[in-house]
Design goal:
The chain has 14 helices and 13 strands. It is an alpha/beta fold and about 350 residues long. About 35% of the residues are buried. It binds guanosine-5'-diphosphate and zinc ion. The site of guanosine-5'-diphosphate (GDP) has 15 residues, from α6.
Length: about 350
Amino acid sequence: MFELRDLGWDDEWAKRFAPYAADGLVPGRVAIEFNYIYRVFAASGELQVQHSGKLRHEAESLSAVGDWVAVRPTAGEETGTIEAILPRRSKFSRKVAGELTVEQIVAANIDSVFIVMGLDGDYNPRRLERYLILAYESGARPVVILNKSDVAEHLAEDMDEIQGLAVGIPVHAISAKQKSGIEVIAGHLGPGRTGALLGSSGVGKSTLVNALLGEEKFKTKDVRAHDSRGRHTTRHRHLIVLPESRGLLVDTPGMRELQLWSQGDGARDTFEDILELAQGCHFTDCRHRDEPRCAVKQAIEDGTLAADRLDGFLKLQDELKSLESRKDVRAQIDAKRKWKPVANAMKKFYKDRDQ
Ligand code: GDP
Ligand code: ZN
């Protein structure tokens, strides 16, 4: 059994759900996805569900961990059918290129995204910037977690550098291994609030999750007060309910690989090649679109630069231009979210880089 509010349910979701409730459907939150079979947390407990045929044909994208869905339960069984996906408040996605570019949602309805970076050899402000862009695009609030403070050699300097880069974004130094400072995670979450961890392999995400779950607490009934299944259930769920109403965490392989994908498509990677070529453009403020004597366009014609590199670059520029307008839309959605510092940080990042 679950208390829906502990899972993030609120009046706004209830309002969205009202028409489905009238139709006999029950709300559930997707906790795990495997081969188009989902397990959702619902008031009655855990249900194993699949999409209705109709939804499979109509939906732009299928459910993802974190989604709130409308389920038609099968009478007398712990199964059911997903009939609808409630509109997402935030989402992490990747574009899967094929004949048609399809958006694959990796996680949905994340309130805060914790960008984890190690204060050891992993420390890399450039990579953090890329994660900040991912976070910004998702609609979740970014929080920077500098882990491994126990082995940091220049903690104060590193903190300063990151704070200067992520203006307006909370930055915390912690040690997941020593369980020191980890309460800041719960501080940004709390009852019914959902977080996700972003960061490259080895930064300490698993260690942090384990520390948050707490082995001792894990063994007590606290964590499974609402979960009648076996002791380790929580671990296998990608939507993790933290003990003592500290909030929820999404930890999926998809989230973990997000950075790899975004590096793989090149579009968000560094554009050193283009920036270098741009030095040769006739106009110093050349946008490499239709300006004459553009060295970047010339390189494509000469075959020394792949056309999709420039496409990626231009796409990113466009995204940045729409920062302000997106910020306004978001401000309406959640007046508490402070997007301006994020937008400014992004602008500064590109300005510095483009210089
Ligand atoms: P993940 O790939 O992000 O899940 O990283 P892991 O949690 O598997 O951690 C990678 C390595 O870093 C492991 O050897 C951890 O013991 C170590 N580690 C994690 N957190 C800390 C920390 O706060 N301090 C130190 N010194 N090591 C840590
Ligand atoms: Zn140019």
